[in-house]
Amino acid sequence: MSIQIENKTRSFTKEEQKLFSDYAGKALATLLSSDFIDKRIHESAEVSVDVRLVGAEGIRKMNQEYRSIDKVTDVLSFPVLDMVDGKLDADLMPYDYAFDEKGKKILPIGDVIICPERARKQAKEYGHSMEREMVFLFVHSLLHLMGFDHENGRDETAMFTRQEEILTSIGLTRDTAPVVPDSDRDSENAKSQGSSILAPEEHPVGEMLPHCGYCALIGRPNVGKSTLLNAITGMKLAIVSHKPQTTRNAISAIYNREDAQVIFVDTPGIHTPKSKLSEFMVDTSFRSAKGADVVVLMVDGRFDKPASVEKKIVTTAKKLKKPMILVINKADAVSKESLLPLIANYSQLAEFEEIVPISALKEDGIEELMDIIISKLPSQPRYFPIEEVTDQTEREIAAELIREQILHYTNEEIPHGTAVEIDSFEEEMSDNAVDSYDRSLIKIHASIICERDSHKSILLGKNGHMIKRIGTAARENIEKMTDCKVFLDLYVKVRKDWKNRQVFLDEFGYKKKED
Question: Comparing C-alpha atoms, which of 176, 165, 76, 169 is closest to residue 133?
């Protein structure tokens, strides 16, 4: 029996996760030993459950994607086995099982997604401890994985009874008092750790802010949007290359301060599509602008006239009736006088709220730009916990960091006909680990997808030297991102004309959304 916990929100502390993990293990063991659970499940192999802890916006997105509802819920569950009332619908098949690195037989029964922010709020409302609420949600989800469904009314009473039986048996009764730590001790701990334990509580998701919302960065390829995004966040969230069309998906980065939260979306460069992948990229850019509260159009200060691409962007943005800011990047490369014709030409296209010259590479003018963007955002509740800086997973960022090195080392030999697919992302925990951040090693197996056999030969290089250079550089960047030792194994696969084949685009995450 094993429970893998992935904590994607730092508002749930290490101490809380350790306590939750202990109780969750006891709850799962109690459930599996119950007489209403099919014995074939735990007798055939070690049972495995994956638990992911996410923020409010993360679970909202999952509800939108999988349930078509725009709502922040406390928990979601995704069963793997076909079960009804704790009994298997059919015999287990060989493909139902998995094996760990030592060859041990594993039976995954499903995934559980929990929102700790929502759980914390409910724990206060119900007057019991946070650990009881978290474990209650876990047990509730386990019963869903076992084929119980309270929503149709059939299992509501049975589920309630069994939940209470399990929680009581592990010492979490309904009258379990909340654990209230000594305030003086917490204050001293906070000073010694260099951070405030109360920070997440002081700035919870849902608190009303004077300025909060989404900002879409749009513009033609290679204009510097990703460089600006990385400079704003202080982290490498978007890959940077001198080649155009580097970004393919809209990448969210979160800028936090006590009175404001800006969720930046770095969109793929807008250009004339020449493949289905290009169509996906352009569609992603315009969708991001449509859903934003403010739109930042970034242009290259070295060119004083807008081309057809910029004209199309401005025309589309005007229809959205969003506040629009013109950012002139690479302003350090030209004189201030040479910017005047550019400003005049763009002012004829639209009435911009502000026009701001910057240098994203040298980080000049960014502070002024941030103040302007924030001033244009509406007063809204905080979307993300104040500690979060992105909604991208480590797995997603790792794939982009690998692709960045492909672009860097292959120069013009390999155009943008490559994709990176993470085949496996396995974490080994430290001996004294208390949460998912205490890792001793991450093992990543990834496939580099290219369009031609000749591209594969270039990617591999003579005696495998090129793939080794790409792998070494990518591994070093991934280690900086994860603060953990990384083993990276790369494969090169040919998928002819994959950029125009929808089956491959869907597989690699470039699925066009319907309106």
Answer: 176
For residue 133, pLDDT beyond 50: yes
Model confidence pLDDT, tens digit, residues 21-72: 999 999 989 988 888 888 888 777 888 889 999 888 788 888 887 877 777 8
Separation CA 492–CA 163 (nearest Å):
48
Please check whether residue 289 is in contact with residue 215, taking contact to mean a CB–CB distance below 8 angstroms: no
Close Cβ partners of 477 (under 8 Å, ≥ 6 residues apart)? 236, 401, 404, 405
**Count of other CB atoms within 10 angstroms of residue 54:** 23
Separation of alpha carbons 87 and 36, rounded Å:
8
Residue 9: name the closest of 164, 115, 155 by CA.
115
Give the residue extent of every domain in the chain. 2-169, 208-381, 394-507
Q: Based on C-alpha coordinates, what's the Rg of the chain?
A: 25
Class of domain 208-381: alpha beta
Supply φ then ψ for residue 329, to 5 degrees.
Answer: -85, 165
User: Is this structure's pTM higher than 0.90?
Assistant: no
Q: How far apart are CA 502 and CA 493, in angstroms?
A: 17
What is the DSSP track for 299-324?
EETT--S--HHHHHHHHHHHHHT--E
Report how far residue 83's alpha carbon sits from residue 89's, in angstroms, rounded to the nearest whole number.
5
Structure tokens, 457: 């030969």
Which pLDDT score, from 0 to 100, does residue 151 have?
53
Taking only the tens place, the pLDDT of each residue in 366-392 is: 889 999 999 999 998 888 877 777 767
Q: Which one is predicted more confidently, 235 or 143? A: 143
Q: How many angstroms from the chain centroid is the CA of residue 357?
A: 31
Q: Name residues whose C-beta falls within 8 Å of residue 63's C-beta, 6 or more positions apart in sequence.
A: 69, 70, 71, 72, 73, 76
Backbone angles phi, psi at 308, to 5 degrees: -60, -35
Give the model confidence (pLDDT) of 207-253 as tens digits. Answer: 888 999 888 888 877 788 878 887 877 655 555 444 444 444 456 77
Phi–psi pair at 223, nearest 5 degrees: -95, -10
Task: Detail the DSSP E strand segments found in 103-221.
Answer: 105-114, 208-209, 211-218
The closest alpha carbon to 392, from 13, 55, 117, belongs to 55
Helix (H), strand (E) counts: the chain: 17, 18
Do the strands 105-114 and 46-53 form a parallel or antiparallel pair, or are they unpaired? parallel
**CATH match of 2-169 with 3.40.390.30:** yes
Residue 187 has which token pair?
């204050």
SS3 for 54?
coil
Three-class SS state of 173 = coil
CATH class for domain 394-507?
A: alpha beta
The continuous run of DSSP H or E covering 367 comes out as helix 366-375
